[in-house]
Design goal:
Layout lengths: L9 H7 L2 E6 L2 E6 L6 H4 L5 H12 L3 E5 L5 H9 L5 E4 L3 H14 L4 E4 L2 E2 L4 E8 L20 E9 L1 H4 L8 E6 L5 H6 L2 H7 L3 E4 L9 H17 L2 E9 L3 E7 L17 E6 L8
Parallel strand pairs: 3-4, 3-9, 4-5, 6-8, 9-10
Antiparallel strand pairs: 1-2, 7-8, 10-13, 11-12, 11-13
Helix pairs in contact: 3-4
C-alpha cells in the first residue's frame, strides 16, 4: 500500500506539516520534514540488508555498530529487522548526525545512539570531502584521492579509534560491525585491530568497485592491502549475493576483491561479510 506521503510531492507535504509519522517494521516513527533528508525515510523500502541483519544477529547477538550512518538508511533496516539489542551509529558529518539524532529523539527510539565522530586509525581532526550540492552527501570520504574533488568541499571532523570510543558508551559486545566509509575501510579497521582480534565480530563492509577515472594500480594496492589485513586477523571474506531487491541470495567466498569498474547496474556487488574462520553462514 502506498501511503499519503508517497503520493504527495514533498514540497506540498512540507506545507502540510512539520513532521510526518511513518511505520517501519511495525514501529511508528516521527520524521522531521525541514529538509530533503526526510525523503530517505519517507520512501524507504525493505532490502536484502534486513534479512542479512536478522541472519547474522541471530547467530551473533550483541550491539549493531553502524560506521557510516549518513541520514539513517541502515538504521531503518535495523528497525525493520526487529532484532533486540543496541544500535550504535557513528557518523562524522555533523549535518547527518544531527538529522538522525532528531529522528531518534522524536520517535523515542530507546537503545539507539548516534555518535558524531568519524573512525580512523588514529584520533585527531581530519578533513572530510563532501559534495558541494548535498550537505548530507552519502559519498563523503576522508580520502582525497578516491574521486574527483572538482565538485567537493572540505569540512573538518573529529576522528577516534573504535576501541577508544566503545568504552565511552558502555563497551558493548559487538554483534555486527558495519563499515560503509567510501574507500577508507582499511584505515577504519586498522585502528581497533587488537579489539577485532580479541572479540572477532562479523563485519559487514562495503568495498566499492574502482571508479572509471581512478588510478587502477592505487586501487589494486588499497583493496589488496585490505584483503591481506582482514585475512591476517583470521577472517574469511564472503561477497553478499543479492536475489532481487529484498532477497538475500547467500554468500560466496572470495580470495581477492575484483578490479572491475563500478556501474549503477553493479551497485549490489559491493557488499562483503568478513567473518571469523569457521563462522556458520547460510547459503555458502
Amino acid at each position: 500500500m502506498i501511503n499519503l506521503h508517497q503520493r504527495v510531492p514533498f514540497r506540498i507535504l512540507q506545507r502540510l506539516a512539520r513532521r510526518w509519522t511513518i511505520e517501519i517494521g511495525g514501529r511508528r516513527l516521527t520524521i522531521p520534514l525541514h529538509s530533503a533528508d526526510a525523503l530517505e525515510w519517507l520512501y524507504w523500502k525493505e532490502t536484502a540488508l534486513v534479512s542479512l541483519l536478522r541472519d547474522v544477529l541471530q547467530r551473533y547477538p550483541g550491539a549493531f555498530v553502524d560506521v557510516g550512518v549518513n541520514v539513517g538508511q541502515t538504521l531503518a533496516g535495523f528497525i525493520a529487522a526487529g532484532m533486540p539489542g543496541r544500535y550504535v551509529g557513528i557518523e562524522p558529518n555533523l549535518r547527518c548526525a544531527s538529522y538522525v539524532s532528531e529522528v531518534v529523539q522524536l520517535s523515542g527510539l530507546d537503545g539507539v545512539e548516534i555518535i558524531p565522530v568519524g573512525l580512523w586509525k588514529e584520533a585527531g581532526l581530519k578533513s572530510l570531502m563532501v559534495g558541494r550540492a548535498a550537505a548530507t552527501d552519502p559519498t563523503a570520504s576522508f580520502l582525497t584521492d578516491i574521486r574527483s574533488n572538482d565538485h567537493r568541499r572540505e569540512q573538518w571532523a573529529w576522528t577516534m579509534k573504535l576501541d577508544e570510543l566503545l568504552p565511552m558508551v558502555g563497551d558493548p559486545q559487538i554483534g555486527l560491525l558495519k563499515v560503509d566509509v567510501e574507500g577508507a575501510e582499511l584505515e577504519v579497521l586498522q585502528g581497533p585491530a587488537g579489539l577485532l582480534e580479541r572479540r572477532r565480530p562479523p563485519i559487514l563492509c562495503e568495498v566499492l568497485l574502482v571508479g572509471e577515472k581512478a588510478d587502477l594500480q592505487a586501487y589494486a594496492e588499497r583493496v589488496g592491502g585490505l584483503m591481506a589485513f582482514v585475512r591476517g586477523l583470521g577472517y574469511e571474506v564472503y561477497r553478499v549475493r543479492i536475489a532481487g531487491r529484498e532477497g538475500l541470495g547467500g554468500f560466496t567466498r572470495v580470495d581477492a576483491f575484483p578490479l572491475d569498474c563500478w556501474t549503477h547496474e553493479r551497485a549490489d556487488e559491493c557488499d562483503y561479510l568478513f567473518v571469523p574462520a569457521g563462522f556458520d553462514l547460510p547459503g555458502v
